[in-house]
């Protein structure tokens, strides 16, 4: 495997179940809710999309914090790396409160835009009315993942996520159909289960951050730069500077995914239900690939923070090899098991038939997507967020979105959606390969390029 491969997998393997836990839960959630009927499953698809968009739109709390904390950790400044987590948590709490208020204010119009059927839109609004309270928890957990990955502490998040997802899964299985003495809450039972698990996870990440802070205070005499739990505006501004690029990049994903949902909805309730299941399975696939990308963020950031440009490039080569290997494995599994997977995930034969179409597209796209994810991780670890922002926006607006609009207009259904995904991935692949082959991303020093008032010398 080699030394670099072992280092990648020492981080990727504990990260993998953490990343996979949420989409696995959502798949279980979809299976349980799907037994209530395709209308409830379609409503869950709309509501889950809104929650996914809101949660992942702030993914700079994870990715940006990892990049900044990893460089500081590589430079031997662990206490400052943890301090990045403190400030990211303040951002998470502040933004979470604002988002909850905003969603409640526009709940009805939001679900009506995404669902062509009025009954589905109303059910989605009922689900979101409860589930949206988990947004602050999602953001706090995202910040926690960020600083822990940055300092290469990857086992604690695994335990916290296992407990939270376990509570959510048990709650869903019991509350949706009403097992034993539990009331049959239907779709809303899914939302309450989701919220309970998120509260537990967020509480665990907050507790871990406080304990880490206390350890530094006792060890270093409560130095202001590393020991304070108060907001520090200079650090927050630096995080937001990097975060703006990541938010724009993520927004381009979300706009196209939202349009994809409307294209599926226009093809009928069965297509929308199948699209929801395919979306959750694709989320699982991409997070499996992201385990290597996150390991790359942590290790590349630490290498560049320590001034080791050659090690950063060697890590990039190792990431390519392992990412492509994972992509090939997922493609083979999808081709071999697409029919039984479709039957297992859906209790309705029409939905299952449409899901087969989506799985075929998924098998074609996942190999180049694997390489894109791995090299994204390398560039995110280097803090090269501005380049990723621009290349992703161009691919989304000039590649994915036109195909989706044509799909909705001509009625191409799920096949058209996955052709659009293929164009999107191909354009991004060209961009990241071209970038990593050059030297512009190899910026050395303890601070990410986006967090500096002026750029340091390049390697």
From TrEMBL:
InterPro entries noted in UniProt: DinF-like, MATE_fam
Record localization: Membrane
A Gene Ontology term for the protein's cellular component: plasma membrane
Chain ranges passing through the membrane: 44-64, 85-107, 127-146, 158-179, 191-211, 246-269, 281-306, 318-337, 357-379, 386-406, 412-434
GO molecular function: antiporter activity; xenobiotic transmembrane transporter activity
Keywords: Membrane, Transmembrane, Transmembrane helix
Membrane topology: Multi-pass membrane protein
Main location (coarse class): membrane
Pfam families: MatE
Family: Belongs to the multi antimicrobial extrusion (MATE) (TC 2.A.66.1) family.
Name of the molecule in the record: MATE family efflux transporter
